[in-house]
Amino acid sequence: MSVTAGAPAAPDPGLEHPSLVPAQLLAAADAAPERGPDGVGSTGGRRRVQRSVRDWVVDVTCFLLALLSGAVFVGAALSETPPPPDGLVLADVVAGVAGCLLLWWRRRWPVAVAVLLALLGTFSDMASGAVVIALFTVAVHRRLPVVLGVVAVGLASFVVYTVVRPTDEVPYPIVLGFGVLLSAAVVAWGMFVRARRQLVLSLRERALRAEREQVLQVDRARQMERTRIAREMHDVLAHRLSLLSMHAGALEFRPDASPTEIAQAAGVVRASARQALEDLREVIGVLREGPDGSSSTRPQPTLGDLPALVEECRRAGVRVRAEYRVPDLGSAPPATGRNAYRVVQEALTNVRKHAPGTVASVRVEGGPGTGLTIEVRNPPPAGGEHLVPLPSAGTGLVGLLERISLGGGHLEHGWTADGEFRLLATLPWPADWASA
């Protein structure tokens, strides 16, 4: 086909017929909902994917636009003087329609379809629009080396086209340069669409990954909360339940006890059970904080509650000597006081379990700036053990060690050289802490 003043430029088989390719062709190919470049997911033709409704609409649009543009090119060629031979025109139309039909397989075999259409573009004006769409599809769904290879095949076929259907009106370098520029423009557009789709896929994967990580964080937080509640229940309830077990055992193994002793033991059992229920509600109440952060249950124990804890143990039959060397027990920081309370509670619970009948010594000393030291000592049990050993999970000191470590303190426990079991805890008490 020759190029006249009012006729279009010669087609570029790799990105052929630059000036006559409607922008709608590339826009329709861009709208094709390919799932991802280079065969990722369902694109690139590496595995067959059933067309969606949008795929059908896009493919039909591309096919019709390719036919329409090809008909325009053929009509422009027939309007030239002299017109092409009838045999060439017939071959052009037949090959061009076949090339447009090849677009139906551009999703599955983009490179093969583009190469076949480039070969048809060596002589066919009817295949020009299909060649452009095929090259654009390759640029969207294949990496740059593959795209450059297809472009090279297209430019070679364009050189053959200029020989088969030469033009005298436009100089050959201008025709060839125009074809190269349009090829580069379509490839650049396709690479831009490819980069945009890769960005969308990356953002989608990142969002899915963030959602999965959030689910894992929620599960991890839930598990940590369950573990914390379990440890808190152990610290709170072990003390009360050990009292229940000890006095219930006394009622069981001393049927000859006087009514006064039985009534006293039953009262301790009743009081301990009620206190255990209150402590259980206190632990569960940690999860029931109001919007302002205030708890719906009674406050957590503090250092000022230690004397009441010691007196309670004494009423339960535990022999305790307590020494407080703190100017004001109520002035300790809440976290330090609560941890100190749990240390003494766990230590006296272990004394009742493992050293019944012995005398436990509790010493609490310290102040702002010097820290708080809690020491509980008891000798080994004299004589036989309790007839029915109290149950023990063996994890009380482990949980206590972790509690103290998280609070910034230090915990030691073990037998001393003089044969006593010692539990020693040191807790921080900032110098600038002011009591409320």
From TrEMBL:
One of its GO terms (molecular function) is protein dimerization activity. Residues 225-290 form the Signal transduction histidine kinase subgroup 3 dimerisation and phosphoacceptor domain. The keyword Transport does not apply. Its EC number is 2.7.13.3. Signal peptide: none annotated. The chain crosses the membrane at residues 56-76, 88-105, 112-138, 144-164, 171-192. GO terms for cellular component: membrane. It catalyses: ATP + protein L-histidine = ADP + protein N-phospho-L-histidine. The keyword Kinase applies. Keywords: ATP-binding, Kinase, Membrane, Nucleotide-binding, Phosphoprotein, Transferase, Transmembrane, Transmembrane helix, Two-component regulatory system. Pfam families: HisKA_3 (PF07730). It comes from the Bacteria. InterPro entries: HATPase_C_sf (IPR036890), Sensor_HK_TwoCompSys (IPR050482), Sig_transdc_His_kin_sub3_dim/P (IPR011712). Gene3D superfamilies: 1.20.5.1930, Histidine kinase-like ATPase, C-terminal domain. It is an enzyme of class 2 (transferase). PANTHER family: NITRATE/NITRITE SENSOR PROTEIN NARX-RELATED (PTHR24421), NITRATE_NITRITE SENSOR PROTEIN NARQ (PTHR24421:SF10). This is histidine kinase.
